[in-house]
């Protein structure tokens, strides 16, 4: 019997602006477990890109696939080659889905992923949104942002997988789950919608709700965790942001 | 599931709304006396009311008012919950446009620093420059410096500028120098309220934009207040 050590959960919902304008949700999440690799991925389609809902779906799905298939390769590669390889894989899949008459920029979307294989993890992040990490070390439990949002100077600017400088702007993190006295016990990805309620830019802190969500994933049934996640996103979407909201979580059991 | 796991608003952060800084740099020289200054006051009031009625813009638009004749900071950047009413403007003096633009941009730079220190996100700032005449009574050298400063900011996407002429005596040539890439517009008669109503809608659209959004100007709406 397969022993699951990292439980995964993800959910995306439409924001108030898109509900009012009858526009589909442009956020997508993906989770996967194959070849001893647990992956969670998330992608947020660019507001004005016509097919960004397709772009974000492809992006989240390809990230899951690439990291399940090529975790060891990405782990061993020099950093720049690994970044280029991830971007190339996503762009190739986007190109295959691109309808004729459209430009690649119509599929513009961000990319966030965390993959764990035994005692190693790899995270990659392009654009806004946040990757959070929970763990335990000699001073107790910690919850911190592993990777913060990469916006431009202005609130409505960020970088997308279709941007010319995507390779250089993609941030790659490779680390050990158990690293000396420190142990990672959970990862959390969020788009810029929930970022408004779960991440404080001023000091880079993550809100207490992040810990509760990670607890729910590790301690509850899949149905209960999904239900808490969808209720939380409903709360955030109705009180804190007009944007689409998505979160993907992975928690050690 | 354990009730303690339920998530409420107390488990979330209350982050500040991203700001849209809008600097109104308004000619209030002696030539604006009478009906023009009254209509300008009505227009600015319309702007405040329209922003106040917008669910998002009310908390994101930060308005600063600089007048010239002489150059004065009438109201520094603030949202409407801090300053719900605009100051009442009066007309007198010359037209030191360079000094007024400098005051507006200096105030804007200070505000941007404050946003950065406080971790407040913001959108590309806007400068609205309105005049019914030509620069007079100020330093020509300073005017030229400010033209270069605005041009650099617009070209590096640090500023959106709307130069508006009022009446037939407005020096559209000088306004053009402040507006690289886009021609200045002349107000139809004294349609300040129509202009400020259009401006509030544009601010509202920006305040709702998310990464990747291209916020296009409502060119159709411009026909309602500008001579085209």
TrEMBL record, chain B:
Pfam families: VWA (PF00092). It comes from Thermophilibacter provencensis. PROSITE patterns: VWFA. Gene3D superfamilies: von Willebrand factor, type A domain. It comes from the Bacteria. Residues 21-206 form the VWFA domain. This is VWA domain-containing protein. SUPFAM superfamilies: vWA-like.
């Amino acid at each position: 019997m397969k022993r699951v050590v990292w439980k995964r959960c993800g959910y995306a919902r439409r924001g108030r602006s898109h509900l009012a304008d009858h526009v589909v949700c442009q956020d997508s999440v993906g989770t996967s477990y194959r070849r001893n690799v647990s992956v969670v991925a998330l992608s947020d389609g660019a507001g004005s890109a016509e097919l960004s809902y397709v772009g974000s779906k492809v992006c989240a799905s390809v990230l899951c696939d690439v990291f399940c298939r090529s975790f060891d390769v990405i782990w061993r590669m020099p950093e720049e080659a690994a970044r280029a390889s991830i971007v190339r894989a996503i762009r190739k899949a986007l190109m295959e889905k691109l309808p004729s008459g459209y430009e690649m920029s119509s599929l513009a979307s961000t990319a966030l992923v965390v993959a764990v294989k035994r005692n190693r993890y790899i995270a990659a992040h392009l654009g806004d949104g946040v990757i959070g990490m929970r763990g335990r070390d000699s001073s107790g439990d910690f919850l911190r942002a592993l990777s913060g949002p990469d916006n431009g100077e202005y609130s409505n600017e960020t970088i997308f997988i279709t941007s010319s400088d995507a390779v250089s702007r993609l941030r790659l993190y490779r680390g050990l789950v158990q690293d000396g006295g420190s142990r990672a016990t959970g990862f959390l990805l969020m788009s810029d919608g929930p970022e408004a309620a779960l991440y404080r830019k001023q000091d880079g802190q993550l809100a207490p709700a992040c810990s509760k969500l990670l607890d729910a994933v590790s301690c509850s049934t899949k149905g209960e965790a999904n239900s808490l996640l969808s209720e939380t996103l409903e709360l955030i979407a109705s009180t804190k942001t007009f944007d689409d909201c998505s979160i993907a979580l992975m928690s050690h059991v | 599931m354990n009730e303690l796991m339920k998530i409420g608003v107390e488990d979330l952060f209350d982050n500040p709304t991203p700001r849209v800084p809008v600097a109104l740099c308004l000619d209030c020289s002696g030539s604006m006396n009478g009906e023009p200054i009254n209509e300008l006051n009505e227009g600015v009031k319309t702007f405040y009311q329209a922003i106040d009625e917008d669910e998002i813009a009310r908390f994101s638009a930060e308005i600063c008012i600089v007048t010239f004749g002489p150059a004065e900071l009438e109201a520094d950047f603030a949202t409407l919950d801090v300053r719900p009413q605009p100051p009442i403007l009066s007309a007198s003096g010359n037209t030191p446009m360079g000094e007024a633009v400098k005051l507006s941009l200096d105030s804007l730079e200070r505000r941007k620093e404050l946003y950065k220190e406080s971790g407040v996100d913001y959108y590309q700032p806007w400068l609205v420059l309105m005049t019914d005449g030509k620069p007079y009574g100020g330093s020509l050298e300073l005017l030229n410096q400010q033209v270069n400063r605005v041009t650099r900011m617009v070209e590096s996407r640090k500023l959106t500028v709307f130069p508006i002429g009022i009446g037939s005596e407005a020096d559209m040539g000088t306004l053009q120098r402040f507006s690289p890439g886009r021609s200045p517009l002349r107000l139809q008669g004294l349609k300040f309220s129509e202009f400020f109503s259009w401006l509030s809608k544009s601010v509202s659209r920006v305040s709702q934009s998310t990464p990747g959004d291209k916020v296009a100007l409502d060119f159709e709406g411009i026909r309602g207040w500008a001579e085209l």
